[in-house]
Design a protein that fits this description.
This protein is α+β, with helices and mostly antiparallel strands. It folds into 5 domains: 276 residues, Rossmann fold, CATH 3.40.50; 101 residues, Translation factors (Elongation Factor Tu (Ef-tu), domain 3), CATH 2.40.30.10; 69 residues, Elongation Factor G (Translational Gtpase), domain 3 (Alpha-Beta Plaits), CATH 3.30.70; 114 residues, 2-Layer Sandwich (Ribosomal Protein S5, domain 2); 82 residues, Alpha-Beta Plaits. The longest helix is centred in the last third of the chain and has 18 residues. The radius of gyration is 32 Å and the shape is elongated. 46% of the residues are buried. The model has no long low-confidence stretch (mean pLDDT 92).
Length: 689
Amino acid sequence: MASEGIRNLVVVGQGGVGKTSVADALLFAAGATTRVGRVDDGTSVFDTEPEEQRRKSSVSASLHHCTWRRHPITVIDTPGYAAFLHEARNCLPAATGVLFVLGATGGEVKVEAEKLWRWCDERSLPRLGIVTRLDRERASVDLALGDLQGLGAKPAVMQLPIGGEADFGGVVDLLSGRAYVYQGDSGTMREQDPPADLAAAVAAAREQLVEAVAESDDALLEKYLEGNEIGADELRAALEAGTRAGKLLPILCASGTRAIGLHPILDAVVDLLPGPSDLPPWTGTDPATGEDVERPADPQAPFSAFVFKTIVDQHAGKITVVRVVSGRLTNDAANASRDSRERLGNPSRLEGRKQVPAGEVVPGDVVCFTKLKETHTGDTLCDDKQRVVFPALPEAVSAISFALEAKVKADDDKVMQGLHRLMEEDTGLHVHRDEQTNDFVLSGTGQLHVEMAVEQLKRKYGVEVELKAPKVPYKETIRVAAQAQGRHKRQTGGHGQYGDCWLEVSPRPRGAGFEFENGIVGGVIPRGFIPAIEKGVREVLVKGLLAGYPIVDVKVRVYDGSYHDVDSSEMAFKIAAALGFKKAFEQCRPVLLEPIMAMTVTVPDEHLGDIIGDLNSRRGRVLGTEPKGIGNQAVRAHVPMSEVLRYAPDLRSMTSGRGDFELELDHYDEVPAHIGEKIVKESRTARDE
């Protein structure tokens, strides 16, 4: 099959609208499976992880393939809940088109849907809109279309449902005027004339479709306004062009669980969505020259492929999933992202967690390889002699972090090995060791995301961990300058110890760090002991004096002192410096600093007041607001880290799951006195214990 026949279909939509049910039903309608997989009873071919089956929702992207009218179709089902949305975003580079699934019972469009729509816009991906679950109570196409207004889409309704709610039994195709009626839940379809009682509704709906399509084509619009008849072939051609150009969103109707309306959707995928060779060439960078280069979906072009997903299977090992961009596969390839080489081996296609031999592979194909050593999600594989690097995947923003501790201390190494394997699969997980607190910190896109990782650690790698709120990395500093003497004198049998230095300790600007100055003149302290004085001070800085946190933004100047020809040593001056710094520090009005986070909170307009009030109650400082998309506001604020360690569940509760936020460390600022006193007291109590 040439590249133009391939369709890579990424199924997206906000959580709970029935994406996986539609994906399962598409496979059944195309004959790739013998029964409709069901999420509720754990038989979906996409939700294969035990955590997905238990929660009855997708947490990672999954692939399967089918063939329709001799067109190979790779179906990629993606999660729709906020904590796992990065999985959907990572799959978009593989797509030639997107199936945007809409709920038929209406309600407000969530931030997830708005993000998905924006990401599709950024990649100029053609879309089909699927109104599913039309067999449910109060379901209607009009409610789904109402939701679309919040996305700025231009719908072109191609079908009229036959029956409603429990009686939903088929669709009328408005282009051909034919009805497709389904028998029970078997997926069996027969084509016939539309029901007579729908004649007026079909005529009115077709007129609306003609108007919507005509508005996307100037020549057709002129013909329409002149009152001339527009034929089905003209409409279909304009609909295809408008869909591929992103001017139109064709709307089709379905019920995934009852396998109704799937055959026309497959026809629309083949007829309206483009193949790889219909899309613009991919643009990357030549790593040697830094210049832009293009790779068209041409088998004669140099080989290139993009890694959009990695799976770590307990039995098959590491599985690397790629979209072949150009050229023909070879046994060896370069990983231009990491300047390494890989032996690719035989390509396979994924059917859920199963792999089947791929046979011939052409540009546009989605295939996988096993046991690649150096390759990770977001990398580019290519011809070694004509290298290219495609833009990496956007980084998933961490929204919540937890300190991680193995329940059994001996499992520390196993925990880290398991986490690194999970991070190979999931680009939204991050782990690091906090040098100040010594905590292992696990970060994810939401609390559910982190909890899921902990469940997988236990199931896949046999280790259990406890999650705790991470310690806030406070720091200590001073507000005024002071001077003090540090004198260490000790006489024992033989040589004694003698070190004497005067230190001036003064504050530096916030973020300026530590500075040490040698102000000794006249040799009152030999030059060879000066490094020991600095070392003594630095050791105190690390441990802190006020509450055990690192001391920052201070200048220490040694300006006087004395020494003994026999008893002075580096150790003696190091101890003297520590003593002198401690004395001066107490006189410098020490204070705690806390990390201040820069936050952007995106919420629907109606929740703006509540969010601003809540941020103020968290000692936040609101910097401003600005419109974000349709019906949303982005609130920018500076908020202490200690006040937002568990912000994600609070925001979800305040906005019914429609809010979203991003945060990053911005600066450090003084802790208010009453809070600082409490932190110091707690720290000293903990040290005493």
